[in-house]
Amino acid sequence: MANDKMQPRLILVLTLITIASAVSLTFIDDLTAPLIAEEAEKRVQEAVLSVVPDAVDFEEVEDENFEIFKALDEVGEVVGVAVQHDIRGYTGPIDVMVGLDMAEEKIIALDVLSHTETPGLGARITEDEFRDQFRGRDFSSQEEVDIIAGATISSNAVEVVVSEVVESAEDIQAAVESGGE
Questions:
Q1: Which of 11, 54, 114, 153 is exposed most, by the fewest CB atoms within 10 A?
Q2: Are 169 and 139 within 8 A, CB to CB?
C-alpha cells in the first residue's frame, strides 16, 4: 500500500527535476550562445589575418561553395585570399582556413579553426610541423604530404580540403573579382 502512494510522488519529483533541468539548460544556452558566436567570429578574423600575414583587413565575399575572404593591405589592395572550408575527419568536422596567393598561385598558410579529433593523434593536425608542409606550395604541386602516424584520416581530410580549395582557385578568384555577386 505504501508503495502505491510513493509512485505518484516519484513521478512528480522526477517530472519536476526534468522540467527544472530543461529550463536551466535553455537559460544557459540562451546566455552563452552569443558569447560562443562572438568567439567563433573572432577566431575566423584571427585565422584570416594569420593565413595572409600581409593583410591588415579583409572583406567577406559571397560564394555558395566556400567562405571566402579578400585579404587587404593598408591601402585596400588585395594581398591574398583566405578560404574557409570544412570536411568530416575521424571523429567529426574539421574546419580549415587556407590562405592563397592568387598571383603567385601558391598556398600562403593553413590554419585549423576547429576540430574534434583525438587528442595526441588527430589533433596533431594543428601542429606547425604538419601545417607548414602546405606553406608556399604551388597550386600545381603533386608533392605528397607527410601523414601523421596514427592519424591518417585526419591528415588526409586536411589534405582533401586544401586540394578542393586549390582545384577551385579559378572560381574563387572569379568570386573575389566580382565581389561575390
A1: 11
A2: yes
pLDDT tens for each residue of 148-170: 888 889 999 999 999 999 999 88
CA distance readout (Å), 90 to 10, 50, 61, 121:
42, 25, 30, 10
* The three cell numbers locating residue 138: 604551388
Torsion-angle region of residue 39: left (phi > 0), alpha (psi -120 to 50) or beta? alpha
List phi, psi (to 5°) of 104.
Answer: -90, -10
Q: Is 136 helix (H, G, I), strand (E, B) or coil?
A: coil
DSSP 125: G
Residue 59, domain member (yes or no): yes
Strands (E), the chain: 57-61, 67-72, 78-88, 93-101, 106-114
In a domain, 41, yes or no: no
* β-pairing verdict for 67-72 and 93-101: unpaired
Rounded to two decimals, the pTM is: 0.78
Total domain count, the chain: 1
Supply the pLDDT for residue 1: 46
